[in-house]
Specification:
Structural class: alpha+beta
Strand content: 25-35%
Low-confidence stretches: 33-57, 59-100
Number of strands: 25
Shape: globular
CATH topology of the largest domain: Jelly Rolls
Helix content: 10-25%
Length: about 375
């Protein structure tokens, strides 16, 4: 990229206006920079941010042959890339008494990663596994792509052994897997997916979800795809949908992007009365609470922001926002005193530092944050 384009993209990043393609461009630019990057002293930067801006601009104009950084995921790359930008345009919010409440720690955003537990109990840390074949079982080859996606490929259609694998993300991790039938699943932070290593001998394709997952289901009319998640069953033939089934949320929410799904509440191992079953249309979301399913039209962009690389809050209460933030940044949240009753609106990349996310919320003047290690204290 030309120097001017780099400067423009960094400014767009600071304004939270970068789209996914522009984030990839920034990552590419960053990976080509020297590992010898050393910003000026932090104290000097805080006294004169313009000096940092001049420094960064001079770095952009240098034409040096440098070795590339080791290949790392986009989350880590973007996080480190904006270190310089963070210094010259600090969005650290100051409390009313003038103290910097967010300056104590710089907590990095989450990244691609997961743990794959095979049927025999073997655990594979996806980040540590090299690209290529990582395991074989039940007539299936399991491999990892260079981008970290896990792929199941059938090698023996006659294999009759039914074995279950579990893919788990911790706080601060997300991943994606292509199942043996070709269906694609994205897992959000602090989530897990249990599924057969092979669907070859199954009348239906059944998986179990905890946390949040986005599904793009390969069509197979003779073998329905079923997702079991927190007292509900979602049955599909071929469609795209998202399920939020975190146990610390007030409701289990299923959102349909395209196709058709049937959502049924399941308690005590059996279905609730048939009239409780709901069939969703694209753009609709079911919300399961206390054995009741409510259906409403929703903003798809808001629901799918996590999978697209963004936080998207629309009139959202601070407790709900902090649950999302805590999962992605792997932090503890503590509340002090009364909390704001009004909702918050924001759109910001998930690959920003936690200071940027909290700083944007603080700018409303309705909420304040204090960082102590990996704990964030929230107050009005």
């Amino acid at each position: 990229m030309e120097d001017l384009q780099v400067k423009q993209l960094i400014q767009k990043y600071l304004d939270e206006e970068c789209n996914e393609e522009e984030l990839v461009l920034l990552e590419s630019w960053y990976l080509k920079q020297s590992t010898a990057f050393r910003p000026p002293d932090l104290e000097m930067i805080e006294k004169n941010e313009q000096q940092m801006l001049n420094f960064l601009q001079s770095r952009m104009s240098e034409k040096k042959k440098v070795r590339l950084w080791p290949r790392i995921g986009i989350a880590s790359a973007i996080a480190f890339m904006v270190i310089g930008a963070y210094f010259f345009k600090s969005i650290l919010t100051k409390s009313d008494n003038g103290n910097n409440t967010l300056v104590a720690a710089n907590i990095a955003p989450g990244k691609n990663g997961a743990t794959l537990t095979l049927a025999n109990g073997q655990k594979i840390l996806i980040n540590d596994a090299l690209a290529g074949n990582i395991a074989s079982q039940s007539g299936v080859k399991i491999s990892k792509t260079r981008t970290g996606q896990i792929i199941y490929e059938m090698t023996d259609q006659e294999s009759s052994k039914l074995e279950y694998n579990t893919l788990t993300t911790t706080k601060g991790e997300q991943t994606q897997v292509r199942l043996p039938d070709g269906s694609l699943v994205f897992l959000n932070a602090a989530s897990s997916l249990r599924y057969p290593a092979s669907f070859a001998k199954s009348a239906k394709r059944s998986v179990d979800l905890t946390g949040e997952g986005y599904f793009e289901i390969a069509e197979d009319k003779s073998h329905p795809f079923v997702v079991n998640a927190e007292n509900q069953e979602v049955k599909v033939l071929g469609t795209h949908f998202n399920i939020n089934a975190y146990r610390d949320e007030k409701a289990v929410k299923t959102t349909l992007l395209e196709g058709s799904v049937r959502v049924a509440p399941v308690f005590g191992g059996g279905y609730v009365a048939g009239e409780k079953v709901r069939v969703l249309k694209p753009g609709q979301q079911s919300s399961l609470t206390d054995r009741e399913i409510q259906v409403s039209n929703v903003n798809i962009d808001e629901v799918m922001a996590w999978q697209k690389g963004y936080f998207r809050f629309y009139n959202e209460d601070i407790s709900s926002i902090m649950r999302k933030v805590s999962r992605w940044y792997n932090i503890e949240v503590e509340y002090s005193g009364e909390l704001p009753e009004n909702g918050f609106n924001a759109r910001i990349t998930k690959y920003a530092s936690i200071k940027q996310v909290l700083g944007k919320l603080e700018k409303t003047g309705d909420v304040h944050f204090k960082i102590e290690g990996r704990k964030v204290i929230v107050s009005k």
